[in-house]
Amino acid sequence: MNKDDIRRLSMKLLATGLADDGQVYLPREGYRKITASLPVALQEQANLFVEGVMAIIPNDFSFWFFFDSKGVNLDVEFADGNTSASAFHGYFTSRKSMSQKLRALNWDELRAELIERGGIMDEMVSKAQDRPVNIHSSKAAAQRYAAELVEVFDTFKNASKTVPFAMAFVGRDGGVIDVQDYPSRDAVVYDMAEVMTVGCQILAVFENNIAWSFEDIETAKLEAVEQLGPISRAKAEGRFFV
């Protein structure tokens, strides 16, 4: 394989069982577990590709690849204590250009900048801990959007197909109600945590087209915030939104 042809490696990986929604994911941590199922020759190519980047990026930075049909997305992250931050993002079709770009970065300066930024976030978390938890009430939110929710409830009531789980929510500043489907309760709780961090208000949750009680929603929200790190939890609990 031409060492500069990332697209060729991508296409080979996409033709395997590793592909999910048109992409193949390979992280710095645990990549060999993922590539272990590949044919030996392709496994070696994929491992060497990841290890070539590992030789450039310092080991206190995490990174992961998303291969698609045209090339690869590379995301690099730095974690320091309670905080993590994006350090670099790029899309590449050439191994040579990727290596040149990564070698040109001053990783020491980048680390220092991210640590300083993390210190500011730590201070914000410390201040947020002194504020009361202010998780929105789904019952109150649903009452504010009662008229709009009629259509949502009617859709599930009259649906010809049963949906395992679904959640209706709206952004912090209002707008159109978003309804998402999920395969399991765990998936609902996971996404609940994500949307709460950006101030979304949970209006309703459905299981097999039947709405949960507001008590069940509040219980799930408490489970959701337990999954989050300090900064995200403070956001989800409404201690950053003042």
Describe this structure in words.
- This protein has 242 residues and is α+β, with helices and mostly antiparallel strands.
- Helices cover 47% and strands 21% of the residues.
- The protein folds into two domains: 6-128, no CATH class; 138-236, no CATH class.
- The strands form two sheets. Strands 1-2-3-4 form a four-stranded antiparallel beta sheet. The protein has a four-stranded antiparallel beta sheet with strand order 6-5-7-8, with helices on both faces.
Strand order in the sheet with the most strands: 1-2-3-4
The tally of strands reads 8
Q: What structural class is derived from the secondary structure elements? A: alpha+beta
How much strand content do the residues show?
15-25%
Q: How many separate structural domains?
A: 2
Overall helicity: 40-55%
- Counting DSSP H or I runs of 4 or more residues, the number of helices is 10
Distance between the terminal alpha carbons, to the nearest Å? Answer: 55 Å
Give the rounded overall mean pLDDT: 86
Order of helical and strand elements: HEHHEEEHHHHEEHEEHH
Q: Spans of 5+ residues with little confidence (pLDDT < 50)?
A: none
Q: Any idea what the shape is?
A: globular
Characterize the biggest β-sheet: 4 strands, antiparallel
Work out the radius of gyration. 22 Å
Kindly report the oligomeric state of this protein: single chain
